């Protein structure tokens, strides 16, 4: 499973590309594999102020709907219209074209509270059934 080392990760399976001006956010390969076929994505409005850990978007699959949480606090500065028009992009390229939104962090140090790729790998490995 792909877990890019340059990203930071949440326990709720979001990733963020750390950047002080425009931090891209999406769901991990583990999350999209659990969801299976993504059929709908609801993104936050531009300019929305969000707090770390707050639900800000929704991803629906044929199985269920899941909240997507803000990995850091800040302002939504960009959304990916491509995923609302073709939600399956999230399944095909969750770390690339399937990104969801970008946040301008108001507290950049919050990134340091998130997991590294190694820590996230340990988390998802421990979640696997024995």
Give a structural overview.
The chain has 130 residues and is an alpha+beta fold. The protein has a single domain (14-108), classed as RNA polymerase II/Efflux pump adaptor protein, barrel-sandwich hybrid domain (OB fold (Dihydrolipoamide Acetyltransferase, E2P)). Helix content is 21%, strand content 31%. It contains four helices and nine strands, in the order βββαβββββααβα. The protein has helices spanning 29-35, 81-85, 89-92, 117-127; strands at 8-9, 14-16, 23-27, 38-42, 49-50, 55-61, 65-69, 74-79, 101-105. The strands form two sheets. It has a six-stranded antiparallel β-sheet with strand order 1-2-3-9-8-5. A three-stranded antiparallel β-sheet has the order 4-6-7. It is globular. It starts with 7 loop residues before the first strand and ends with a helix. The model has no long low-confidence stretch (mean pLDDT 95).
Structural features:
130 residues; alpha+beta; OB fold (Dihydrolipoamide Acetyltransferase, E2P); 6-stranded antiparallel sheet; 3-stranded antiparallel sheet; 4 helices; 9 strands; globular
| CATH architecture name | Beta Barrel
- Would you count the extended β strands for me? 9
Structural class estimated from helices and strands: alpha+beta
> How many separate structural domains?
1
Q: Uncertain runs with pLDDT below 50, 5 residues or more?
A: none
Q: Give the helix proportion (percent range).
A: 10-25%
Shape: globular
How far is the N terminus from the C terminus?
Answer: 18 Å
Spell out the helices and strands N to C.
Answer: EEEHEEEEEHHEH
Strand fraction equals 25-35%
* CATH level 1 class label: Mainly Beta
Spatial strand sequence of the major β-sheet: 1-2-3-9-8-5
The CATH topology assignment is OB fold (Dihydrolipoamide Acetyltransferase, E2P)
Number of helices: 4
- CATH homologous superfamily - what is it? RNA polymerase II/Efflux pump adaptor protein, barrel-sandwich hybrid domain
Calculate the mean pLDDT score and round it. 95
